[in-house]
Design brief:
The protein is an alpha+beta fold. The chain has one domain. The chain is built from three helices and seven strands, in the order H-E-H-E-E-E-E-E-E-H.
């Protein structure tokens, strides 16, 4: 076998290894997503997939693209948006990052800590702030 045939075989092996690595990475990210959703469910927090959500194995393995984003509802009722004066739900976004960490309310959470409790604490604090603000505003309107 000459050097060119060896190079072609090595390239095929490298491509297969890369595909396997991405499949493993996909499964790890999928488990991180499931942990996040379990935590939100256990706290009774309402959430939904963002319009920017895009996470399937085929796209991840072939093109290495993904977006795991969820909108967390901060208040149960619609409130008036200050900019547009339309009635909307208050939401903030939780995003799963490629390194296994999360982003919530423009704060990054380190994947090495695996501490979803810290993120959940921030989510609960944001919900409490929104509820307190909206209840105070309703009382002032009366």
């Amino acid at each position: 076998m000459n050097i060119y045939e060896q190079a072609v075989k090595q390239a095929e092996i490298d491509k297969q290894q890369s595909t396997l690595d991405r499949q493993v990475e996909f499964e790890l990210l999928k488990s991180k997503e499931n942990l996040l959703l379990e935590k939100l469910d256990s706290l009774g927090i309402r959430y939904e997939k963002s319009v920017y959500y895009s996470f399937n194995e085929e796209d991840f393995v072939s093109s290495n693209r993904f977006r795991v984003r969820y909108n967390v509802y901060l208040y149960p009722n619609k409130v008036k948006d200050r900019r547009t004066w339309e009635m909307k739900y208050l939401t903030k976004e939780i995003q799963l990052k490629r390194n296994g960490g999360y982003t919530f309310d423009s704060k990054d959470y380190n994947p090495s800590s695996y501490d979803l409790d810290t993120i959940m604490k921030s989510v609960v604090e944001s919900i409490m702030k929104a509820a307190k603000y909206n209840i105070n505003n309703k009382q002032q309107e009366k």
